[in-house]
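It is worth pausing here to work through a concrete case rather than discussing structure prediction in the abstract. The textbook approach is simple: state the sequence, then state the predicted structure, then interpret. We follow exactly that order.
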Amino acid sequence: MAWTLLFIAGLLEVGWAIGLKYTEGFTRPLPTVLTVASMIASMALLGLATKTLPIGTAYGVWVGIGAVGAGILGIVLLGESASPARLAFMALMVVAIIGLKATS
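Step two, the predicted structure:
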């Protein structure tokens, strides 16, 4: 169950990371409310997951999911660079997430 909570927390981190772009400096009310709600939910689920998972593993996986997800959505939604090097480093993060899961 902790891994499921952690995965959802990571997806919510992606949501708030991308949401920050849409808040336009917290000047747009709806994106701001959704972004802050996603931040709170993400942190709450991370906290619940760390009750049983090691903090280093949980935090690393949470950050990794957020970074890779935000990178992918940045490419897809925001027209950010999809250079081979950037994609390769995102792939390395995925390998690291899998490694942390496999060794915990």
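Step three, interpretation. The radius of gyration is 14 Å. The first helix runs from residue 2 to 23.
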